[in-house]
């Protein structure tokens, strides 16, 4: 078992990464001083519930906690204000009080949704993350919680830190292959923005990671969380540095928004976004090898790097304009300088984005 | 013009109280460094808009700010997730970015709604309060923002501090009499929890306050804000002391909830709640004069102190159980010890509450 401390002053919290953690949930609750007099709300989805819910409930009950469960439909569509209201109803009807913990048992969608419930219920109650996907290694660090607005992703939310993250890697063994690949996109991203050596390690261990080798996976997730925690602890509320974590996200979010949430997995969309960012850098003078290396790693993980023909250029641009990163009427982009290094650039022209959209569509015709 | 500083470390902010402030809004924005490159969203209601909106918009425009306006229906019903979503839509469609300010121009409902929008839009943007009611002297201090859930009031929200509060007392001259009385209930409450001398002052100046005498009103609002700021700065997130501000609110919120939001004005409901709290104290051994004095002051302002016969006892108790103050399965009550002093009591029995509900219904039969 590895423990990683996310250093945020009085909002610091530990991430426990290892096998068998869900069946020890009750012990961890007690150790962290969570109230056993107040009901605990477990938020999960209908994919995860049959696999892992019983284990968590039993462990909590054995430690003296009463539980209320809310199962939401799996998928990005549950990150809506309607589902948010349903979870709030469950919390109220279940008698949750100000000392009650809200648990996110699931992937990024459940984490974002349950996290915003924890941040908002009675203006904030304790929050515990139990990620069950690879992608959630990313969303479980940093305290960004949110639901979507029909016009733009993650538009309604908060910065809200959990009490702890219990990352039981045993849960990853049941993931569908497409989700494994998409989840690894964020792992690769953490290498690309911060750590050339880790990027090389990812390239060399692609096969082990795709095969869910516990040792390789444990290392990669710890490393990914470490890089993210390192960046977040220096800039909790995204005033500067933290923006580098958005590599691939400006175009990625736009793709997710216009294709309809859920059509592309988040990791797939940001994979295309990272290819696009590398190509903008190349068009601005970086060596073409930057784009080739970036896309070669991503393709190694079976991730898409071309722009699907059916996605309309004007719609992509329009969706980008609604993105939170569109600050003071300027596009803010994270662009790679070399593998393991990025910069925050605020003078990217809309025309440059249009150009790479077209270029990445052409790439598709050659595949 | 009086300036009051609410002392909350890096979240400290000033409250400006005086005449003619709305027409200087633009200057205050510039002075506080709010971005003129980013559109400002003004949230107001259909009562306030015809009276004060133009003034604010013009002042902001003259200082170089572009504005987006969202007018919501007046009344508690606008503190819903549905209206919250509508305001978010206006923010997105208006192109608000992370440096955009959200302005609450109106009373407590608009302040709570717009404040939760500011807290949640892109995970938090600058917030400016421009209260136009007496009641809002209370809600504009302390950073509590929220919308209602159909099962309980203020259930969904955040602690979120404004950049500044511009309290233009000229706006109070247009208030309907019933709102004036209800607003003064919170002024009286601040005296009752903290300051015997100020309570006496309120009793002696009842007529001037009800006549909206600018000098008396300016003094009372500053004093009310001061007491609240004093308490909040010692306990921002309501871990202890801050709870005393809830005098009259446990039963008051229950009355609002079961009568249907909007049937009773907030100040009317907490007036009954304060009478009930005083009577619980008397039933626990305090001198009956505590109840007599409390209700005599409130009645002086034309506020209700008896329990309306049509409000069902079981329903009041049921609604109280859903209240945030119902912590770890215990009722937490704020009870007066003497005029100007209260205590936080966690062992009030449901039976004691049932008794005062009945007693306050009987009082009604003698009036």
TrEMBL record, chains A, B:
Single GO MF annotation: 3-dehydroquinate synthase activity
Residues that coordinate or bind NAD(+): 108-112, 132-133, 144, 153, 171-174
Binding site for Zn(2+): 186, 249, 266
Source organism superkingdom: Bacteria
3-dehydroquinate synthase N-terminal domain segment(s): 71-181
Cofactor(s) this protein cannot do without: Co(2+); Zn(2+); NAD(+)
InterPro entries: Dehydroquinate_synthase (IPR050071), DHQ_synth_AroB (IPR016037), DHQ_synth_fam (IPR030963), DHQS/DOIS_N (IPR030960), DHQS_C (IPR056179)
Keyword Cell membrane in annotation: no
Reactions performed catalytically: 7-phospho-2-dehydro-3-deoxy-D-arabino-heptonate = 3-dehydroquinate + phosphate
Pathway listed: Metabolic intermediate biosynthesis; chorismate biosynthesis; chorismate from D-erythrose 4-phosphate and phosphoenolpyruvate: step 2/7
Cofactor annotation remark: Binds 1 divalent metal cation per subunit. Can use either Co(2+) or Zn(2+).
Start and end residues of each 3-dehydroquinate synthase C-terminal domain: 183-325
Subcellular location: Cytoplasm
UniProt key word Lyase: yes
Chief localisation class: cytoplasm
Keyword terms, alphabetized: Amino-acid biosynthesis, Aromatic amino acid biosynthesis, Cobalt, Cytoplasm, Lyase, Metal-binding, NAD, Nucleotide-binding, Zinc
Its EC number(s): 4.2.3.4
Sequence similarity: Belongs to the sugar phosphate cyclases superfamily. Dehydroquinate synthase family.
Role this protein plays: Catalyzes the conversion of 3-deoxy-D-arabino-heptulosonate 7-phosphate (DAHP) to dehydroquinate (DHQ).
Protein name (record): 3-dehydroquinate synthase
Gene designation: aroB
């Amino acid at each position: 078992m590895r423990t990683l401390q996310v250093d945020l002053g009085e909002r610091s919290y530990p991430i426990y990464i290892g096998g068998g953690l869900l069946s020890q949930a009750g012990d961890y609750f007690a150790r962290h001083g969570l109230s056993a007099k107040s009901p605990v709300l477990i938020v999960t989805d209908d994919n995860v519930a049959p696999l892992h819910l019983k284990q968590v409930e039993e462990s909590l009950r054995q430690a003296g906690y009463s539980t209320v469960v809310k199962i939401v439909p799996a998928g990005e569509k549950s990150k809506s204000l309607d589902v948010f209201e349903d979870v709030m109803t469950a919390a109220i009807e279940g008698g949750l009080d100000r000392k009650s913990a809200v648990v996110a048992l699931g992937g990024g969608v459940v984490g974002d949704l349950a996290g915003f419930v924890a941040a908002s219920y009675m203006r904030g109650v304790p929050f515990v993350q139990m990620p069950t996907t690879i992608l959630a290694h990313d969303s479980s660090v940093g305290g960004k919680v949110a639901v979507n607005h029909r016009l733009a992703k993650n538009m309604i939310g908060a910065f809200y830190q959990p009490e702890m993250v219990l990352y039981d890697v045993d849960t990853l063994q049941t993931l569908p292959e497409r989700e494994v690949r998409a989840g690894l996109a964020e792992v690769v991203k953490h290498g690309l923005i911060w750590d050339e050596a880790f990027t090389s390690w990812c390239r060399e261990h692609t096969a082990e990671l795709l095969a869910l080798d516990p040792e390789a996976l444990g290392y990669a997730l710890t490393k990914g969380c470490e890089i993210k925690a390192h960046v977040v602890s220096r800039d909790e509320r995204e005033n500067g540095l933290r923006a580098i974590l958005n590599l691939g996200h400006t175009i990625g979010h736009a793709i997710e928004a216009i294709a309809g949430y859920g059509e592309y997995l988040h990791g797939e969309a940001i994979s295309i976004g990272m290819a696009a960012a590398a190509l903008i850098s190349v068009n601005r003078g970086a060596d073409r090898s930057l784009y080739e290396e970036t896309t070669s790693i991503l393709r190694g993980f079976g991730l898409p790097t071309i722009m699907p023909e059916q996605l309309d250029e004007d719609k992509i641009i329009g969706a980008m304009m609604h993105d939170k990163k569109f600050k003071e009427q300027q596009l803010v982009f994270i662009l790679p300088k070399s593998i393991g290094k990025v910069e925050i650039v605020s003078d990217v022209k809309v025309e440059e984005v249009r150009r790479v959209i077209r270029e990445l569509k052409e790439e598709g015709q050659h595949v």
